[in-house]
Amino acid sequence: MKKYFIQDSPFTVPTDDGKLIEEHFGSASDGNAALSIAHMVAPPGWSEPHQNPEFDEYTYIIKGKKQFMIDGECIILTTGQSIKISSGARVQYSNPFEEPCEYLAICTPAFSIDKARREEK
Questions:
Q1: Taking the model in full, what pTM does it have?
Q2: Three-state SS for 116?
Q3: Cis peptide before 109 (omega within 30 of 0)
Q4: Which of 4, 22, 79, 102 gives a 20 to 30 Å CA spacing to 41?
Q5: How many CA atoms does the CB half-sphere of 54 hold within 13 Å?
Q6: Is the pLDDT assigned to residue 78 strictly greater than 90?
């Protein structure tokens, strides 16, 4: 039995907001509820509603800028920066900038829409 797995066909999460979400590992792609790793591209002008997730989320910016509203504080990350947002923080993710933002998101436990606890728009 192999002690590794190469993911070359991630699960593309259907969206209606223009955001690309490719989950390489996690609940949707390989059934792993402990961890999710996703490659994402947020288009200019994209945003999500506030949420209060039941998971820690780590974000690494590959290219562009991304805005985070965390418990009322506005934080902007740029290429090469990363952040950990702890479970229970009230957070909103957005890209109010003119260029797409490409990034990696890692969640522990794995991301699920129910555990994201998104607020109504």
A1: 0.94
A2: helix
A3: yes
A4: 4
A5: 7
A6: yes
